[in-house]
């Protein structure tokens, strides 16, 4: 079983790095860790980076998950290859770009690019957001799944994820105590569906709601409250159509023995307990 320890970074492609940089700093509130001619490393917490933008095809995406021991990479490669997944070890330059010591790349059953990363670096000093969005950490990704039941099996049987709740057939998967690190959602195509950052308080969610409206940034869902994680949330659209989410108050699941996953309806009430309706195609 591949022991994922935490979700550690997201890599996104963008056709316009300058626009992505302005959005990531002025709107999202991330800190620029490093800006290259065709690359941008961004911080959201103590880690060296959690969001990477590379100039190019917006479909050039990946999600990085930390594994704690380098031997896990070899073992994971053997398991994945036996299941028919092509695997590739990162080069020195690729590891440096990811601020990790080693990584293994493969695609999940839906075709999402996944990277298993060893020793992701901590950043220098505290995270200092470019605006006070109240961000406390990068926390989870929504992944498009062409077969949620099949992919749930992959993430929970080949990897160590556990189902915290389901919305329809869509599982919300934890790898630590946080309610979920991955939300799999039905889609005809693979891809990252949204990138979540936790914020300090409900006030931060609402302050951002008004700021986004003022800046003309499309709010596509919320403000609302998820019945699954109990988190208050706000979804909005960034460059290249990527959806970002702020949420606060996500529940932690500490008792693995007692906790039982719940089933929510694939309907507005399953997504929001306040009555918000999503304007996001995968949630409709
Ligand atoms: C609607 C999506 C995918 C969703 C559903 C529930 C939660 C949660 O319980 O926190 C999310 O974060 C989501 O992104
Ligand atoms: Fe989310």
From TrEMBL:
Residues 6-119, 137-249 form the VOC domain. InterPro entries: Glyas_Bleomycin-R_OHBP_Dase, Glyas_Fos-R_dOase_dom, VOC_core. Pfam families: Glyoxalase. This is VOC family protein.
């Amino acid at each position: 079983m591949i022991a994922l320890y935490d979700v550690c970074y997201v890599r996104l492609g963008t056709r316009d790095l300058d626009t992505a940089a302005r959005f990531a700093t002025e709107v999202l509130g991330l800190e620029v860790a490093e800006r290259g001619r065709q690359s941008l490393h961004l911080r959201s917490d103590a880690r060296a980076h959690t969001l990477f933008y590379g100039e190019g095809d917006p479909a050039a995406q990946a999600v990085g998950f930390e594994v704690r021991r380098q031997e896990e990479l070899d073992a994971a490669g053997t398991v994945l290859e036996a299941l028919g997944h092509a695997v590739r070890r990162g080069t020195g330059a690729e590891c440096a770009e990811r601020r990790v010591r080693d990584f293994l790349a493969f695609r999940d059953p839906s075709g999402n690019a996944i990277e298993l990363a060893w020793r992701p670096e901590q950043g220098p000093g505290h995270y200092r957001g470019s605006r006070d969005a109240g961000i406390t950490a990068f926390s989870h990704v929504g992944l498009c799944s062409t077969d949620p039941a099949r992919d749930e099996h992959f993430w929970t049987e080949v990897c160590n994820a556990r189902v915290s709740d389901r919305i329809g057939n869509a599982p919300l998967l934890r790898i630590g105590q946080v309610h979920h690190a991955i939300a799999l959602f039905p889609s005809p195509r693979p891809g990252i569906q949204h990138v979540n950052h936790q914020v300090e308080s409900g006030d931060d969610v609402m302050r951002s709601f008004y700021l986004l409206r003022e800046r003309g940034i499309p709010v596509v869902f919320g403000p609302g409250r998820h019945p699954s994680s109990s988190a208050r949330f706000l979804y909005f659209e960034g460059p290249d159509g990527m959806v970002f989410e702020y949420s606060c108050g996500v529940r932690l699941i500490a008792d693995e023995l007692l906790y039982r996953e719940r089933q929510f309806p694939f309907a507005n009430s399953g997504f929001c307990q306040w009555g918000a309706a999503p304007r996001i195609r995968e949630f409709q």
